[in-house]
Amino acid sequence: MQKTVRNGKIDLMKFIFSIVVVIYHFNVGNYNYIFMKKGYIAVEFFFVTSGFLFAKSISRINYQKETLVKDSLGFMKRKYFSLFPCHVFFFIACFIYTMFHDKWGYGDIFSHFFRSMPDFFMMQQIGLSYITLLRYEWYLSAMIIVMFILTPLAIRYRDIFLHYICPIICGVIIGLLYHQKSDINFTWQWTWICQAGILRAAAEISLGCICYSFCEKGILDRLPKILLIIIETGIYIVVLMYASNLALRSMGDYTILILTAAASAISFSERSSVSFLNNRFVYFLGKLSFPMYLSQLFVMEFVKPYKEAVSSPAVHTVIFVVSVIAAALVCLAFTSNKMINAVKNISGKISNH
User: Fold this and answer.
1) d(CA 136, CA 159)
2) Domain region containing 305
3) What distance in Å separates the CA atoms of residue 172 and residue 177, rounded to the nearest whole number?
4) Domain for residue 342, yes or no?
5) Does 347 reside within a domain?
6) Looking at the domain assignment, is residue 203 inside a domain?
7) Rounded to two decimals, what is the model's pTM?
8) How far apart are CA 272 and CA 185, in angstroms?
């Protein structure tokens, strides 16, 4: 199998938007929205890019009636288990911390462990979540559930899915969400038959698929490279300014969502590629963004008690971001393929003896 070439622009923006999200979550509970008041909007970038990559991956699968179920399950299995090691690392860390912090008895440990199984399997968004050790993982849960539903449709009816089903899903759900709430920042509310996070994921993953079909036609390749780069950079600046709540407040979440999708499509286009961003360091930053997203709740519990000891909210926030990055690095060290293979080898040798 040919190795997938990473996209330096997308990896860099993943890292930047991960920082936006962790600052937003930290300041919600500690400083009442001093920084990144609308930082939740960064999650839309992850949904859209996930949808783009989903459509791209599905396009490589040739439909065969006899293997549709096997291909669909195989695709989701690879997706699921690519996320699982980092998730388990922080689930265990949060469970152990909460166990000692809340002084659980033996009965509590046993009860809470089994009642947190939806969280352990990243299924919080089905509505059965009890303990929410990693409540910010709603994004992953919603993404997995939506992709599990869409995958067989995308494989079986690829063209219809990209050019007909996705626009309908995106348009109908965004309209529904807009009339439910003027901003897009709602996740756990129950709407009809599911939580709002699943609808949010379905609309934006579908939007990412639309972006892929748009790029697949080569429309962006007809535009001058410098123009694409200027538009792309300008849009990202607008989105970051909106997330920080410094300006452009009147634009609204749904306008920013569409702009984010447009910038993402340009970033994925080979026409707008810039070679200096395609290097190992930038790729590593992109890889680091996922454990950063997962580590924030765990790290927050250790950092927030020092609120009164630091000189300012800005310093406290910087300490938190640095700590999140450090925790993400530790997670990557423990969940790397080399580490996992080493543990397997040690386990095999022990079992042989």
Assistant:
1) 34
2) 8-335
3) 9
4) no
5) no
6) yes
7) 0.91
8) 31
